Amino acid sequence: MENVSVVRIFVLSGINETMNYRIAIFSFTLLYYCVILFLNISIIMIIILDQNLHEPMYILLCSLCFNGLYGTTGFYPKFLFDLLSSSQQISYEGCLLQAFVMYSFACCELSILAVMAYDRYVAICRPLHYLSVMTKRKLAQLICFSWLTPFCIFSISIFLTSTLKLCGSKIPKLFCVNWIIVKLTCPDTDTVSSNILSYATIIIYVCHGLFTIWTYMHMTRTCVRSKDDRARFMQTCVPHLVSLVTFLVVILFDLMYMRFGSTDLPQSIQNFIAIEFLLIPPVMNPLIYGFKLTKIRNRIIGFVYVEKK
Length: 309
Prior knowledge:
The structure is a single chain. With about 300 residues, this protein is mainly alpha-helical. The protein is built from 12 helices and 3 strands; from the N terminus they run βαααβαααβαααααα. Strands 2-1-3 form a 3-stranded mixed sheet. The mean pLDDT is about 80.
């Protein structure tokens, strides 16, 4: 289908209120982005280089950190550039690409966390079958599922958006969002296909959430019976549970506000709500796993101790 949009440039108007403090915001954002890169790359390298960490749980953590790098790289470099630019514009193609990255990052995070919940479920509820269930082949399939599912869904979603005729070019956010682009369509444009896919996507990821709840119900029931299982739950499941709850809270808060929230809030507060999922999880995930998981913590302590010598 031919792309019929007449809009070739979008304006990211969400940044306007921050321009009076752009040097301070630029400095803080650059420092924060460097912290994200350092923490996530450190965890990834520790897991890759240490043969003792080549286990499903740590490989899935590595995938989670990769996703953190992927999502934040889709936002921070462009945002930093906009802070130093006199006009906050983005091309039509660039906007669609950024929207794809933002959505696929969020859904990859949910998929990976669901797979991690399944891994912990097998380890705690079916420990005798863990090695036969979580084989290298099964692990590779689960990782491919967690990445390819959102990539396929949002490739179709962005393609459908690219076929729409747009009559507006102002995006009241710091980055491009597919839902906002669809709202810029002309009144006579048919958006039924995009809406159907949006609701189907919501159903798919609600099922992810229900599956994760189901696994934790079974794990909690199992851990109540055994002191050893309770210790294992606290050691390996609590970091995952904290990551999951934090991400769900920030992403649901953003979605609810984007669809039903008031536009009377100051733009700075709206901006913070919009980028919470790019601020908190990418830093919290490597920190909480690095401190809580014994093998990674010991590896970090050992590395620091050697460096001091």
